[in-house]
Design goal:
alpha/beta, Nucleotidyltransferase, domain 5, 6-stranded mixed beta sheet, 34% helix, binds zinc ion
Length: 354
């Protein structure tokens, strides 16, 4: 989802790139470029171009401050961003939350603000506090997609997607030919983590595993980082913090319990990809990143490719290693950066639309 540009005295959607003008109508000095990537654990800040140094601060989030009220946490976030933005800056903020880019409204983010479900107009709050700054807010997965697309574009590429598997799961797809990231009338796209998990595995059928959103048997219930821990416990394994270290080691050692756990957790992701390719044959490249992909590395990639190699019906004949090699790109740590994506979002903003 997302991409709201909120300007001084404006607040409506506007095309990207127009510099603010003085009352006399003459362009002011070149505005400072400021970017932030706001997550549940860290806020990363950068003033200047893509090569400028990055400052990392602890996020004023529910995750870091479970004792603070949502009102206080939101106020702290506004304060942090407003303090950091240089005078008259163009600010591009990648935000780890569901944001309606049409209105700038944040629907919710469990790591930042817990279960608070009432909409919050962050763009208006920033604009009200620092009207000299031009604020652009984009969802972090949209920002990651823009960064991925910028670094992996090649001739003939029609649509490109980015799938993040970490504490949550989300997908964004961009149309490179038209420079668009289509969204629905709520400003959202690809919140697939909260769709029902497609699985035929007996261990997971109507398993009742709760998602972070509170509903049972979502894709994120099974296939996110916390989802893998839930499935591990369902299999009688230790789903605690030790799992992160045990699982790659056990997979490397060929432990059948670890292999089954990975098979079960990847199954719904493989089904989702089959559906995606069935409905969108022009999706030419998909990046996969996030903590789950980074933590499990080749174990994850090999198992996903193995499952996708199997034919499930005449509609899904199974994908060859060559076919998959051309379409799936597993992204290591640091290769896709939402902060960089936020700084690159400008030319995409007019195309993030229903
Ligand atoms: Zn959910």
């Amino acid at each position: 989802m997302t991409g709201v540009k909120t300007t001084a005295g404006g607040g409506s959607r506007a095309s990207a790139g127009s510099a603010p003008r003085t009352s006399a109508g003459t362009p002011p000095q070149e505005a400072a470029v400021f970017a932030a990537d706001v997550g549940g654990t860290w806020v990363r800040l950068r003033t200047g171009g893509l090569d400028a140094p990055v400052e990392r601060l602890s996020s004023p989030s529910r995750l870091n401050h479970p004792d603070r009220s949502v009102t206080r946490l939101r106020e702290d976030m506004i304060e942090l961003l407003c303090q950091a933005a240089p005078r008259g800056a163009h600010a591009a903020i990648s935000f780890g939350a569901a944001i309606d880019h049409l209105s700038g409204t944040v629907y919710g983010s469990a790591p930042l603000w817990g279960a608070a479900a009432e909409p919050f107009d962050l763009g208006a709050a920033l604009r009200g506090r620092r009207p000299d700054v031009t604020w652009q807010l984009v969802n972090d997965v949209s920002a990651a997609l823009v960064d991925f697309a910028a670094t992996h574009t090649r001739p003939g590429l029609r649509r490109v997607g980015y799938l993040t598997l970490s504490s949550g799961i989300a997908l964004r797809v961009a149309d490179l030919e038209r420079l668009r990231i289509p969204v629905d009338e709520r400003g959202l796209q690809g919140e697939i983590g909260h769709l029902p998990a497609m699985t035929t595995a007996p261990e997971l059928r109507r398993a009742g595993l709760l998602c972070e959103c509170g509903a049972p048997d979502h894709l994120a219930s099974v296939s996110s980082g916390p989802g893998i821990a839930r499935v591990a416990e369902r299999l009688g394994l230790d789903g605690g913090p030790a799992l992160t270290q045990w699982l790659p080691e056990a997979l490397a050692a060929g432990d059948p319990r670890a292999r089954r756990l990975l098979e079960l957790c990847i199954g719904p992701v493989a089904h989702m990809l089959r559906t995606l390719w069935c409905l969108d044959p022009h999706l030419d490249l998909l990046g996969l990143g996030g903590g789950v992909i980074e933590g499990l590395g080749a174990h994850y990639a090999d198992e996903l490719r193995r499952q996708l190699g199997h034919a499930t019906s005449y509609a899904d004949p199974g994908r060859s290693p060559d076919w998959l090699a051309g379409r799936l790109l597993f992204c290591g740590p640091g290769t896709v950066d939402a902060l960089r994506g936020a700084q690159r979002i400008g030319r995409w903003l007019p195309g993030i639309a229903p």
